[in-house]
Amino acid sequence: MTDRRTELAANLAQVEERIASACAAAGRKREEVTLIVVTKTYPADDVRILHGLGVRHVAENRDQDAAPKAAACADLSLTWHFVGQLQTNKVRSVVSYADVVQSVDRIKLVSSLSSAAVRVGRELGCLLQVALDAGSGERGDRGGVSPDGIDELAAAVAAAPGLRLDGLMTVAPLAGPYADRQRAAFDRLMEISSRLRADHPTANMVSAGMSSDLEDAVAAGATHVRVGTAVLGVRPGLG
Ligand SMILES: *Cc1c(COP(=O)(O)O)cnc(C)c1O
């Protein structure tokens, strides 16, 4: 094994152990939680190693980096998640490789994703990104729709050709009433998810939890955790 492969294998084993313990503590089955490895800022070679270690879901947050990486890994069977703030001028590119966009947070983006998906003849999974710290009608600092904007956005995705409403995503807020209260934030997300599922029963994905708070997310009921640093290492610079 190369050094990098050894390192990633060890990190992955540790994360796997954390997820398994969190599931056990919550009385949940391990297979109820899917690990998505966030490979942003790391090279395609790392994605290839991770695939060799059994990873099947990866996530990226910038189209400029993600598009060439996905192209370099086109021979691997991977599900690509897009988790970053998305400008409409990047939609066409993102739709060419992403299987799921987790950061759907406004109506304008829904129409743009829909026409792009129809054009390439693909069905794109969509998660609505919830900004738990955003007031009514506002958007979050890091993207996301306020909780009271979910119903309208969900209806728009459900009615849009080429799109499939899969569920919700959140990033635990750094400020506001949920700052440093990850478990409370994820519990709130689960309440919003129950309400969403009443109208859209198949929209049952709940993407929450990162390297520092995946246990809270699993305890609350998340179906997907997005882990970067704990698998790949601390990112150089911003990301
Ligand atoms: C970077 C990122 C993650 C992973 O964060 P880590 O702290 O590195 O695990 C998860 N979700 C989103 C939206 C991200 O941008």
Automatic annotation (TrEMBL):
One example of the protein's molecular function in GO is:
pyridoxal phosphate binding
Per UniProt, residues of the Alanine racemase N-terminal domain are 11-236
Q: What cofactors does the UniProt entry give for this protein?
A: pyridoxal 5'-phosphate
Query: Per the record, a Pfam family?
Result: Ala_racemase_N
- Residues modified as N6-(pyridoxal phosphate)lysine are K40
Question: Which controlled-vocabulary keywords does the entry list?
Answer: Pyridoxal phosphate
SUPFAM superfamilies named in the record = PLP-binding barrel
InterPro entries from the UniProt entry = Ala_racemase_N, PLP-binding_barrel, PyrdxlP_homeostasis
Q: Which HAMAP family match?
A: PLP_homeostasis (MF_02087)
Function summary: Pyridoxal 5'-phosphate (PLP)-binding protein, which is involved in PLP homeostasis.
Q: Which family does it belong to?
A: Belongs to the pyridoxal phosphate-binding protein YggS/PROSC family.
Q: What is this protein called?
A: Pyridoxal phosphate homeostasis protein
**Which classification does the entry list for the species?**
Bacteria, Bacillati, Actinomycetota, Actinomycetes, Kitasatosporales
